[in-house]
Write a sequence for this structure.
């Protein structure tokens, strides 16, 4: 199993077997050691402000937390020494967790589709830092964030 | 309508008519000008880590964002000059929105019930700052947060 | 007085008459409505870790706070309606203050010269949000930050 | 050497041999495994706003970063297994560094003396999280902060 296959397998697992991701409709669409992307569609159940039909701020934070965690996982996997087995991968990801997350809300969360992206800013054996952005399908910049993740 | 009735009415509205709050099961249980509380029950659909049965980090961030926004609203209402009508209240809350939110994850989100609390730290005519905490029903401290809200 | 002259005059004032900036050696070298830059030289008095000769984390935070505040000021000035007089400028800047600041430390603060840059991410009549970076003279990325400023 | 003596010795070292602390006048006045305190006197050179005689925001951030780092160090030392020698202490503190710092500015930094305090919120073998506050000598709450530190 090469790293590309692992990224794909993990994306499938997180897309299909993580209940909250399915509840909201988060779909990991890019995943490597430097970048990640999560997309989700507008749904009325994600409304946080009934008078204005905009996303709940918690959905935005959740999308940023997820997409940052995905690229942090990609970074962990990139540093696993061979052999890459289901076991070494699972062991490596065991400690992955969010330490802290800052979300900056720039504009109201309106759109048909939302695209969250992340990239690695600090890559280490214990802690990774990522920057994230949320745009809608028209390219409107809705939010950005910074996440610190435990990776080792 | 006195302020206590207004707080109750707004809590009812947010509990019953804000789709994402209902999706997750957020329930505002305290709401005044200085403090707020939101409770929600464990549900499998909130799982963020299927191997460990813990809350998705996004649920935690969403609960903190909501409970901070509620006390920020309480603070706005406390400063409305009479008369308190549906119109003056709606106008006063029109600009309420999260500017930024920091979430610190302290311990895995395990429990039967989760209690998010917030208090006002900075109260102003334009911006309010709140601190939030998330505990489970056993008093385990799961997360805390800091939120900056536009209030005017 | 046109806006470019105002930017220059304000930079001179902050460079020469703000005691802490002179203590540390902060020098505003770029200043307009979208971008700002602050430079400072290594000095032994800025050492935060005597065993390793690296910048005190507080110097980094101070540089990011300053450079973010400068571009926030640039943004305020850009929105002043004519006429631009010393009085209208002073009145407009009266409320400028930092609400919150997040600093992410990426690499040890080593170098001969340090360059802090900022750009506006959210521009509003009450609140502005800026992103900042600190590099050394070799282009090493030492820190980045996010600042929320009261502007109105 | 018992732990209390070590705390005292380290406080002396940081008070007397860390150039930036001396430049600003930071003085560690409490230091154990759970709490820390840093005090400093008003000096005109710390002015960040010449028209209003208030502290530069960078001084506030620096004080919070320092006092949080001190209690993080206290926490590291509390977990060293005997014997406590200069060598084991130095080795244990080698990796101590700030990962990220959030500063919330609540009120203008006015006063004769400033007191920064910190406590541990998350204590781990790799990462510690601390909360900090800054008050003046009259008890006015000027700022608070949250810091994430690498400790292992």
């Amino acid at each position: 199993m090469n790293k590309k296959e692992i990224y794909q397998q993990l994306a499938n697992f997180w897309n299909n077997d993580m209940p909250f991701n399915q509840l909201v409709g988060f779909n990991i669409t890019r995943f490597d050691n430097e970048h990640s992307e999560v997309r989700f569609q507008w749904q009325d159940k994600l409304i946080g402000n009934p008078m204005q039909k905009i996303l709940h701020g918690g959905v935005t934070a959740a999308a940023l937390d997820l997409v940052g965690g995905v690229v942090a996982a990609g970074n962990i996997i990139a540093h696993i020494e061979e052999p890459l087995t289901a076991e070494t991968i699972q062991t490596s990801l065991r400690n992955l967790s969010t330490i802290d997350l800052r979300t900056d809300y720039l504009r109201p969360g309106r759109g048909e589709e939302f695209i969250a992206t992340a990239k690695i800013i600090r890559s280490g054996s214990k802690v990774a830092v990522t920057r994230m952005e949320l745009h809608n399908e028209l390219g409107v910049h809705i939010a950005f964030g910074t996440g610190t993740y435990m990776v080792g």
Observations:
- The helical segments of chain D are 3-17, 19-24, 57-78, 86-93.
